[in-house]
Amino acid sequence: MKKQVAIAGLGGFVLGLILTAVVGFYSLPRLMMLEDRSRFDDFDTTVEQFQQKVRDAGWSILDVHDMQSILAGHGHDILDVKIVEICSSRYSADILLLDDERIVAPLMPCRVAFYKKSNGNTYVGRMNSELMARPFGGVIKSVMQTAGAQMEAVIQQVIE
What we know:
160 residues; alpha+beta; TATA-Binding Protein; 54% helix
């Protein structure tokens, strides 16, 4: 009888682990990416306000990718989408100076996306830097979380 209870308990534990893994797997993308609605009615105003706030915070705008225009050149008709590449030398140098930390270079520069949805609203999408930084630890975690928090403060100015 004790053996059957132990087997049933173990089976329940294993099933619980499997269910947790499945739920985690399917919810992880929503945790890794953040999305908020712009407080501005106009798409261009949202992008312009963000860019000004980025500069005011001492960050650089490296490039702006107008995906609507790019894809229109290939015969696709999509709603407004712009991806803004931003960088702060204060943070990027701390990572890129160190050999072992350069592994995260593909995540650089930081990118923030602005897009319209069919409901007519403009949204701001970006990577959840705080969450993404956790597994790395050390300098990468510290820098990504600090830079991410500063950029979130900038983003809050266009979504609240």
